[in-house]
Amino acid sequence: MRFFLNRNIAILLGGQFVSQMGDKFYILALAYWVLETTQSSAQMGIMLFYSFFPAILLGIFAGAYIDRYDRKKIIVLTDLIRGAVVFGVLIFYLQGALTLPIIIAAQVLLSICAAFYDPSIPAVIPQIVNKDQLVKANSLTQFVQGFSTIAGPVLGGIAIATVGYKFIFVFNALSYIISGIFECFIAIPKREIEKSTESSSIFKDLGEGFRFIAGKKPLLVILSIVGIIHFFVGSIEVVVPVIASRLTGAGPTNLGFLQTSIGVGTVLVAIIVAATGYLNNKEEKFLFGAVSFIGVNFVLVGTIKFFNISTVYAYMAFFCLIGGSIVVAATCFRTILQKFISNDNDMAGRLFGVVGVIGNFSIPLAMLVYGFVMEYVNLALVIGISGALLTITTAIFIKLYFGAWQRFLPYGAIESLTRLNIYINR
Question: Which residue from 23, 49, 180, 293 puts its CA 20 to 30 A from 188's CA?
């Protein structure tokens, strides 16, 4: 239990593992079903857009509710509702009446639930672990996500080929219900929740969340870079299935390999972070460094695609590195936010709700844009230019956040660059 810090975080992670495994099955099945049925990356992009956009739109209001009501009840209830929605999809499928509009409607409902569920998790974590355990707790949540990303795509691809979509729909529905049952046993300390009868109280809470962020320039800069990286990271959900379909071999198998590679990188890096705590008090530097590294790997993926390398194995290492970099960036970002509200956890829901809107708004936009762009522009060019833009933009934000490159680079790197400059100028 020591690895999991305490009983509560272990229960939370257990429930998340089950539901995220179901999610990986489900989203892979939906993406492949849309591509197979419509032969259109644009249609897949539209489906993915509606899977995320409602959560972004409602996130700003959900954060205020999370601060005003029992977070445990919100987490449990939203999981149970999501299980019921997926069971509804199963019924339409069994009747032979499942269509893209029905899938989109179900994704909208699931996304609405996610608007309340997703910010509740990071808001709860500071209540069940100590402040000096936040990095480890957040890295463990990334570990669970990464492990499910390893197993989910492979098992999901096998399930599609062997037992079909029916099994996947049943599995995902049950995974949400099991997760909700797990979460019933989490002991979350009671908070003093201020009750207000004013009709405008929710909007007042939202205003406080915006004012809190607006008063902290470093947080604004970090939110900006996160919004930008999410545009490019959000494209992965659309880009990876398209790449998989254009490589040698079966599309579902290739998709499973690529998604699993991302998961391997996620798990390995999450284990290192949780075991060493090396990111402690260096979160800002590692956040920007990880984003830059993602950009570099996008360029490399675009390069090998440009040269028409068509074996899936050539791409796996790069997606593994991208997965690891995403873990570092996500862990650092969440820890930075939690430290900002460490002395005022009653602001957690509002902060994560507002942050979710500002930082994540670009994800569904990316899915929509990339889905259409890839139908008209060379895939290698799209990926390569995206990586170059991400790297350049990150460099600009590093200068803006740290004020000078010397404050971002490690001391040893600064010393080496100084000596090199002296040598060159001789």
Answer: 23
pLDDT < 70 regions, the chain: 1-5, 59-60, 63-64, 146, 149, 153-154, 157, 161, 191-210, 212-216, 252, 340-359, 403-426
- Whether 325 and 290 have beta carbons less than 8 Å apart is answered as yes
> Domain range for residue 91?
2-185+201-424
pLDDT given at position 169 = 87
Report whether 193 contacts 66 (CB < 8 A): no
Q: Residue 221 corresponds to which tokens in the numbers above?
A: 């800069």
Residue 265 belongs to a domain: yes
Q: Cα dihedral sign for 195, 129, 320, 159?
A: negative
pLDDT number for residue 203: 63
What pLDDT was estimated at residue 127?
81
CA angle 305, 308, 309 (to 5 degrees): 80
Structure tokens at 214: 């607006």
Flag whether 401 is in a domain: yes
> Can you tell me the distance from the alpha carbon of 294 to that of 286, in angstroms, rounded to the nearest whole number?
12
The per-residue pLDDT for 8 is 83
Given a contact cutoff of 8 angstroms between Cβ atoms, the answer to whether 242 and 291 are in contact is no
Q: Return the CATH number at 307.
A: 1.20.1250.20
3-state secondary structure of 194: coil
Sign, Cα dihedral of 145, 336, 210, 390:
negative
Residues in Cβ contact with 92 at an 8 Å cutoff, skipping those fewer than 6 apart: 98, 99, 102
- pLDDT at position 297: 93
pTM: 0.66
In the chain, how many domains are there? Answer: 1
Q: Residue 196 falls within a domain, yes or no?
A: no
| 193: in domain | no
Element of type H or E holding 278 = none
Contact 64, 350 (CB under 8 A): yes
State the DSSP string of 109-173: HHHHHHHHHHHHHHHHHHHHS-GGGHHHHHHHHHHHHHHHHHHHHHHHHHHHHHT-HHHHHHHHH
The DSSP annotation for 308-374 comes to T---THHHHHHHHHHHHHHHHHHHHHHHHHHHHTTT-GGGHHHHHHHHHHHHHTHHHHHHHHHHHHT
